[in-house]
Design brief:
Jelly Rolls, 27% helix, alpha+beta, 8 strands, single chain
Length: 133
């Protein structure tokens, strides 16, 4: 499933790491206009857009446009120690019908902790999007 998606985020993973994702991830869909994730939500899932588009925003402003291969919410999914995570800092709304790969936060933590290329990409994205963190 994951290898055939050709998602750049997964390109550096080993077959064993891809199997971890395949066994724990699931696909979901969102209709245009549907909220995929709400700001301040305490859930810890990590999303990858497989098809479609989405808008990242706070109540006050548009932050980003997302499309196939883009991912969110790495900050809430990553356990920063002592079971401490962050709430969602923005809402994500589908702007077209979307197909999503959803990974549980625990699986994201395993991949990040094990020092994979996946973890490097997650940390880089966090630093780029939240430079003061």
């Amino acid at each position: 499933m994951v290898r055939s998606m050709k998602v750049a985020l997964f390109a550096s993973l080993t077959d064993a790491e891809l199997r971890l994702i395949t066994h724990s991830a699931y696909e979901d869909t969102a209709a245009a206009g549907e909220t995929i994730m709400r700001r301040w939500d305490p859930s810890r899932e990590f999303y990858v857009i497989l098809a479609g588009t989405a808008d990242v925003r706070t109540a006050e402003e548009h932050l980003a446009d997302l499309g196939p291969g883009d991912f969110f919410d790495k900050l809430a999914a990553v356990d920063w120690g002592a079971s401490f995570g962050y709430p969602r800092l923005a809402s994500v709304i589908a702007t077209s019908p979307a197909r999503l790969l959803v990974l549980p936060g625990a699986r994201v933590n395993t991949l990040v902790r094990d020092g994979t290329g996946f973890g490097d990409q997650i940390h880089r994205a966090v630093r780029e999007r939240l430079p003061g963190l």
